[in-house]
């Protein structure tokens, strides 16, 4: 898949923002702890991936009703849906000077109904020429996402016959439709009713 950078300037994928708040003490402290044990950029990116995937449960899997959208809140409260967990992973990468983009898939049920947008992160490690998508959603029976710079190991592979889509755009910030849904939802059941179905 050929990706399209929303911003041609790679430094845009290192910037801090209200959602990707990698200058927040919670994010910085975790980034520092991970970097001490994993000083190499590749090892750090994988360790940060595993941390967000495994230590921060997907709120639906955990039955957690809270909605988080800032990276610092996701890491501190240890909860979030795929969008929020992706923001947290992007923040941890950017905190160590590794370009990170937010990207998305459109997924659906096995009959093509109930479409929903799924959040991913693309990483560009030193010495690499292409972005590599990662899925920190969290594993469960039937889902086995892994950190990989080669063949993608995402939670789901899109099925075009069910109108599923891999969106090629690499965003510097969460897509407005995603961020608006997260920020407006008082709890996860409310969020489920307002999740974007397309970008």
TrEMBL record:
Record field: transmembrane: none
One Pfam family, short name: Transglut_core
Lineage top rank: taxon: Bacteria
Residue span, Transglutaminase-like domain: 28-133
PANTHER family in the record: BLR5614 PROTEIN-RELATED, CONSERVED INTEGRAL MEMBRANE PROTEIN
Protein name: Transglutaminase family protein
Species, as recorded: Streptomyces zaomyceticus
């Amino acid at each position: 898949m050929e990706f399209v950078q929303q911003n041609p300037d790679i430094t845009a994928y290192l910037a801090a923002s209200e959602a990707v708040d990698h200058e927040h003490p919670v994010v910085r402290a975790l980034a520092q702890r991970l970097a001490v044990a994993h000083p190499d950029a590749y090892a750090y990116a994988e360790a940060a991936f595993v941390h967000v995937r495994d230590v921060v449960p997907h709120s639906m899997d955990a039955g957690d009703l809270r909605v988080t959208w800032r990276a610092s809140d996701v890491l501190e409260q240890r909860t979030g849906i795929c969008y929020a967990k992706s923001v947290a992973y992007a923040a941890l990468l950017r905190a160590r000077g590794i370009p990170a983009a937010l990207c998305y898939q459109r997924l659906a049920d096995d009959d093509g109904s109930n479409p929903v947008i799924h959040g991913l992160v693309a990483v560009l490690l030193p010495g690499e020429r292409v972005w590599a998508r990662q899925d920190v959603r969290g594993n469960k029976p039937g889902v086995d996402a892994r950190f990989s710079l080669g063949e993608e190991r995402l939670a789901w592979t899109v099925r075009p016959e069910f109108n599923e889509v891999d969106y090629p755009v690499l965003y510097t910030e969460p897509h407005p439709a995603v961020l608006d849904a997260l920020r407006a939802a008082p709890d996860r059941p409310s969020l489920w009713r307002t999740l974007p179905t397309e970008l």
